[in-house]
Amino acid sequence: MEESMEEEEGGSYEAMMDDQNHNNWEAAVDRFRRPPPPPLPPIPASTREPPGGQLLPVPTLSVDRKGPKEGLSMGPPPESNGVIMMLKSCDGTATVAKAAPASTPSSTININTSTSKFLMNVITIEDYKSTYWPKLDGAIDQLLTQSPGDYIPISYEQIYSCVYKCVCQQHSEQMYSDLIKKITNHLERVSKELQASPPELYVERFHVALGQYMGALQSIVPLFIYMNKFYIETKLNRDLKDDLIKLFTEHVAEKHIYSLMPLLLEAQSTPFQVTPATMANIVKGLYTLRPEWVQMAPTLFSKFIPNILPPAVESELSEYAAQDQKLQRELMQNGFMRGDQSRKRAGDELAYSNSSACASSRGYR
Question: Which residue numbers delimit the Cullin N-terminal domain (predicted)?
Answer without folding.
Answer: 133-266
